[in-house]
Amino acid sequence: MTEYQSVTGPSDLPDFLTALLSLLGEDGVIVPGQDAPPLGAYLNDWRGRYQGRALAIARPRDVAEVAAVTRLCADHNVAIVPQGGNTGLVGASTPDDSGQQLLVSLTRLNRIVAVDAANLSITVQAGCLLAQVQQAAKDAGLLFPLSLASEGTCTIGGNLASNAGGTQVLRYGTARELCLGLEVVTPQGEVWNGLTALRKDNSGYDLRDLFIGSEGTLGIITAATLRLFPEPAGQVAALVDCPSLDAAVALLHRARARLDAGLTGFEVMQAWTVALVHKHLPDHAKAMAPLMSGDAPAWTVLIDTASPDSDASARAALETLLTQALDAGEALDASLAQSHGQRRAMWALREAIPSAERLEGLMVKHDIAVPTSAVPTFVRAAQSQLEQAFAGCRVACFGHLGDGNLHYNVQGPSSMDAHEFLARHETQVNHLVYDVALSLGGTISAEHGIGLLKRDELVQRKTPVAMQMMRAIKQALDPQDLMNPGRLLATPSGHTPG
Ligand SMILES: Cc1cc2nc3c(=O)[nH]c(=O)nc-3n(C[C@H](O)[C@H](O)[C@H](O)COP(=O)(O)OP(=O)(O)OC[C@H]3O[C@@H](n4cnc5c(N)ncnc54)[C@H](O)[C@@H]3O)c2cc1C
What we know:
single chain, alpha+beta, Uridine Diphospho-n-acetylenolpyruvylglucosamine Reductase, domain 2, Uridine Diphospho-n-acetylenolpyruvylglucosamine Reductase, domain 3, Alpha-Beta Plaits, 7-stranded antiparallel β-sheet, 5-stranded antiparallel β-sheet, 18 strands, globular, binds flavin-adenine dinucleotide
């Protein structure tokens, strides 16, 4: 951990910190120093790639305090890094190493404001945990379908700022599609109340969509009105062994046609990713043992289905699908969850993969998407080019096949230290993987965003016109470049956050 200057009390603080303390009170500000609690959870990113320093950590309690802090920052020209649960994976939620940026943590804005069951909507403050929002919907007999492995830690503000995807996009869409309205504090400290619960509103530019996915670079989201759905009466999942990725895609097409809106999730896990869970998180694997066939298949698919009627009707539809898939050779074996506990265990296996990967060591990570029909071609081409360039390298591939979105993560040969492989070859691996994805009409980021990790790649992959429009929007809304500078877009001076 970096050493911080020791600050003994307000009289030693510069003007800015004194003003900040008077706005938020002692419990609303953490100033790094000898007496500060351990700050790694705020300053280091989840993957352990970025270690920052902060001028201070501001913990406002409501929108008025967020606005006051933002005005203070504008007056003193202090850059802000908004932060929710700090589970982001692209180096956008932690400060740089200058020690001059203010980290604004939204986690104390954690109130469920209102549930409107008749309008199928919920209004929440931005620092609510995703799991908390899901539970509030459930308590009202409804469903908030956004679902990520990090849902016990990530916040709704972070989900919206990064336009999170997750496991139910196939049926319900990304965070963007689940959001009806926003409340945002602008870089100048003004409050834009756009907390509408309308399904249709064509009155001018869509400001809501501008802030969703903007990674904290245009303003601070302080509250949101979100879309809810009726809770399905029946939910059943199955694990399916597929002989190849082509077979898995054929199964996807069959599932779409047969189950239609009843198909809520279609995930794929390549053999090595399941082996990593066995190796590092054996409890997850043990819970699955009765449901997994003996030999690890090349590809395991997790199909999740829902029915407005009952578990029995969801099960009947899934059984018919699986019988057809077995007959067609798209599946070698299939296990249907016999209880909600078994369904949860299947998902736990899938959701354990990022943590198992982390325990295996650093990887060059990608979050690409291509049209679903092009997924097998992508995997074949990327694999063969990687093999040629880095003999013996290993690929952990899993993800949301139903959305054409793969987490395609590359580690060097087992004989080579993971840090060394990353340090020496990350750029080349990225170029290779992104070239293949883009040649198939794909994208370099399906759901994790750009941050610092992919910022320089973005410039090379977007058209000059697209970059020009993005810079114009940033300049118009944040002329002082105080909101998460250097993330997503380079700073005008070209300074790269450390
Ligand atoms: C185990 C694991 C699994 C994951 N699975 C998925 C997945 O399936 N799909 C997916 O899309 N992502 C996934 N992620 C990534 C991550 O959890 C999501 O991006 C999540 O939405 C980030 O939320 P957060 O509250 O942690 O945001 P943070 O990490 O704190 O911040 C993320 C970005 O949003 C900005 N930000 C945060 N709060 C605000 C706010 N209130 N206003 C303005 N800007 C803000 C930050 O500045 C930063 O740019 C996963 C991460 C982990 C660790």
